[in-house]
Amino acid sequence: MGSRVLRSGVRFYQNYISPLKMGSTCRFEPTCSAYALQVISARGAVTGIVLTLVRLSKCGPWHPGGYDPAPRSRRPKGHVGCPYCTPTTTKES
To answer: What is the chain's percent helix, strand, coil content, to nearest 5?
Structure first.
């Protein structure tokens, strides 16, 4: 529910507010709004907001910008675990 509302807000910004600017002003690729949609969809509302705020805090003359993709989730959806992903302990006799 929260993710849906946030994504709708970002889409509203993309469709109605962003076009009012004269040209693209984002120094990152993908744009900050596209990044926000990606992280909110992949990580949920709370983590998506945190990651988006971190990304927006980089927006300024002190940061060069460039390619900054959304971080991949740590585990795929429905991932149960495997010996390579989760630590296992074995008792040797």
So the answer is: 45, 5, 50
Nearest CA to 72 out of 49, 41, 29, 50 is that of: 41
What angle is formed at CA 57 by the lines to CA 72 and CA 44, rounded to 5 degrees? Answer: 40
Closest CA to 51 of 25, 70, 75: 70
What's the pLDDT at 29?
87
The C-alpha angle with vertex 20 and arms to 15 and 24, in degrees rounded to 5, equals 85
pTM of the full structure: 0.71
Is residue 44 left, alpha or beta, with left meaning phi > 0 and alpha meaning psi from -120 to 50? left
Secondary structure (DSSP) of 28-43: EES-HHHHHHHHHHHH
